[in-house]
Amino acid sequence: MRQMARTTNPNGRVMERNPERTRARILSAALKEFAAKGFAGTRVDAIARRAGINKRMLYHYFGDKEGLFRAVLRRKIAERQAWAEGLSGDPAESLSFWFEATCKDASWVRLLEWEALQSSQEKVIDEKQRLAAVAGGLKRIRQRQAHGQISGEFDPRHVVLAMQSLTMFPAAFPQLAKLIMGKPVFAPGFQKEYAHFLKQFAAVFQPAAGQRIKIKFTD
């Protein structure tokens, strides 16, 4: 039987080294820290303490803070891509699913909000990889247009942007949603009500009766 290497955590306790588990623990801790303080405000020391590891172990796995941020992004994007591929393509299912998923993952929303506040327009961390993920999402929309699930009258980019806005806005701006709706976003009553609305509103994205499929590709 292969023996695991041993290391010590910041408190001096001896721990068996499991690379996959250690990486997962670091990524989980990093997501929480980046979501709470943003990329600029997060310190590697704080991530290491939260993960219960020595800081040099973090550098060993991810190189530096930007490398760690990139890894967090890729992990979350891969998770969402897997979910997207498992959906039927019906807008009513997609909208309610993504809203409910977003409400359960407020850390992801906060991380993106911090990134918007702290990042420059010229530099988006891991932009190439993220553009590839966007391209995959646009491809799925075009396929659903071709299958008659989504109206071909819409630019796929507008569809993706509108769907993301509808499903992420309440969690991204809970204070505004509460002012409008009169109840907290994370209250079960609000989430049930809004998910029902999204299922009804999804008809906007679907082809009208007798509509010919027409997919627009614009620059």
First-last Cα distance: 57 Å
- Apparent shape: globular
The strand line-up of the biggest sheet is 1-2
CATH architecture type of the largest domain? Orthogonal Bundle
Estimated radius of gyration: 21 Å
Summarize the amount of helix as a percent range.
55-70%
Counted up, domains total 2
Biggest beta sheet attributes: 2 strands, antiparallel
Reading the helices and strands in chain order gives EEHHHHHHHHHH
Proportion of beta-strand residues: under 5%
Q: Structural class of the secondary elements?
A: mainly alpha
Give the class-level CATH name of the largest domain.
Mainly Alpha
- The total count of helices amounts to 10
Salient structural properties:
219 residues; mainly alpha; Tetracycline Repressor, domain 2; 2 domains; two-stranded antiparallel sheet; 10 helices; 2 strands; 3% strand; globular; disordered N terminus
Structure overview:
It is built from ten helices and two strands, in the order E-E-H-H-H-H-H-H-H-H-H-H. It has 219 residues and is mainly alpha-helical. It folds into two domains: 76 residues, Tetracycline Repressor, domain 2, CATH 1.10.357.10; 133 residues, Orthogonal Bundle (Tetracycline Repressor, domain 2). It has a two-stranded antiparallel ribbon. The longest helix has 23 residues. The termini are far apart. The N terminus is likely disordered.
